[in-house]
Structures are given as C-alpha cells and as structure tokens.
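Reposting from the mailing list since nobody answered there.

I have sequence plus structure tokens for a pair of proteins and want to know whether others read the tokens the same way I do. The first protein:
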Amino acid sequence: MLIGSHVSISKGLLGAAEEAFSYGANTFMVYTGAPQNTVRKPLEQLKIEEGKKFMSEHSISDIVVHAPYIINLASFKKETYTLAKEFLEKELIRAAAFGSKYIVLHPGAYTEKDLDYGINRIADGLNEVLSKDIPDIYICLETMAGKGTEVGRSFEELQRIIEKVDKANHIGICFDTCHTHDSGYDIINDFDGVLKSFDEIIGLERLKVFHINGSLNKCGAHKDRHANIGADETNPKGADNIGFEAINRIVHHPKTQGRPFILETPWISKTENLYKQEIAMLRGEEK
C-alpha cells in the first residue's frame, strides 16, 4: 500500500522525505512553497538530489505535489486568471523537478459568474498551460465538497472539464474522501456504487491519487471540514462522520490499489498530529 501524508517542504525535499519516513510512510505530498502565496525558494535550495537519494534508500515513491490555493482557473478577473495559468505552469516544472508525476489542483470557483462559465474557463486555462512545453505529469483535478461556487462537486462537472481539454491524456483525478462525502456521494454504504459511477462518467484509468480524510459533517453537507480517521467526540478536533471502517474499505478496495493514499487529517495541536497512528491503523498494524 502506498500511504503517507502531507509533509512540510520548509527543510527541502530531504526534510519532507525524512518527516514522511518518521510517520512510517512510503509516499507523501508537499506544496512547493506556501499554498497561500507565490513566494518560492529556488529549486537549488531545496535539497532535491539529497531528498531523492533518501527516498530511494527508504523505499519512498510516487510522491504528490499539491498546487497552491491561489490558483483559480475559473476566475473571470483577468489578473487572477493570468496568475493562475502562469503559476500553474511554474508549479508543474517544480513538481517535475521533485520527481513527482502528479500535481493536485482544485479546479476553481466561478464567483460572480455561473457553472458553465467556470467549466469553460478552467478548460481554456488548462489548454493554454498544456500547449506549452511542460513536463510529462498529470494535473489531477480534485473532487470538491461543493462550497459556494467551486467547480468539481460532481463527477459530471469534472468530466465536462476533461472533455474540453485537448491534451486530456495529461488530466487525472484526485479523489478526496471528505470532499466526495460532503458533496453527497455515499462512500460509507455504497463505495462500490460510487466507483461504478466514477468509472462510467470519468473512467477509473483517470483515478491517480486519493486524499484520505474523515469528515466533521454528514453526507451532502457541502462544507469541507476534515476529521481524523475514525475519531469520536473525545477527539479535540471533532468526531469523524465517515468512520474507520468505511475509510479502511476504501484503502483496501481492489480497484483503488496502486495509487498514493495521502492523509490531510487535522493536527491535534501545533506540534502534534496523528499521521503515524493513522497510517499504522490503515495498514492493519494497530487498532
């Protein structure tokens, strides 16, 4: 099983790999810099070769890069849209330098416009980015919870984007369990049915990455609030409404294997997370 978590890039790729290894992970996800801004350290300062060497020595692979939140390809504002395209192109280059095959992207929010506008705008932006000389990497559109005007709350919305992309062979999907649950899909009682629907609408071959998260909300709440896996009301961050059994079925399902499973569950405090325990629990190493 390829399983890991989001880790910090503050100490470069080497520090990220070492942090992941400390959790018992064999994959991980990073931002290439702060997700809220465009400030980025030069690649030569990020200890990339040392990180790759550590990963090779410790059987860590299939790492994932997450695009920053400030990229909004659905925006009608010229400056926001231009930034989104230009910065996504730069992030693709950085992700490839890390040795990643996957960059996860929130499709975007159409704000004052409408869904059709947002879908067309995202596809146009992806077409422009993919027309450049970019690395061989998958842009993985993330399944979204459906907050506000964000695009990607259903498989149909994601497929409408994909079918408008000329180089669709570069487009994958990141399946977020919290988001998909919050958007209304019954991954607790009918994950087989959800996978069947995904396959019929998008195709399982596009499923490249999983974000494995519990949810603080009931199915269909459209709120996107992550919970620790299987947490009850004694957890300081709140109880999980998806539950360990459902998440465990997902990570061990025969049709999900071979993809990196990435935890984005809440930190209990500024210095404590449950990544090590959650990874071991999902591997069946502890209860």
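The second protein, same order (residues first, tokens after):
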Amino acid sequence: MELVAKELCCGCEACRQMCPLNCIEMLPDTEGFLYPHIDKKTCVECGQCRKACPAIERERN
C-alpha cells in the first residue's frame, strides 16, 4: 500500500503517529528527505494513516 505519491508527501509524520500498529517508519530518500515506509506484513490497512495525511486531504478538495 502506498500512502501518497512521494512528490506530495511533506514528511510531517502524521501517518506514522496515527498508525495503531506502528508499522510506518520514516526513511530518508537519496536526498535525505524523510518519507513513510509501510511494513506490508504488519499493516492491516485500517486507513488511519490515510485519514491523518494532509496531502491526501488536499487531493480530496
């Protein structure tokens, strides 16, 4: 599951903070910017990360 396109992510960590199973880790890309990495083995796709993501909210409006 990809949370949001990398170019839209601001690295705010709202998704990581809302994950009830702590399966989101913020990892740096090649330029050092942090982006969410979801452990697909642990994720149950509850959607809490998507609800917390400001980038997804901007796409909806």
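Reply #1 (J.P.):
I read it the same way you do. The mean pLDDT is 90.
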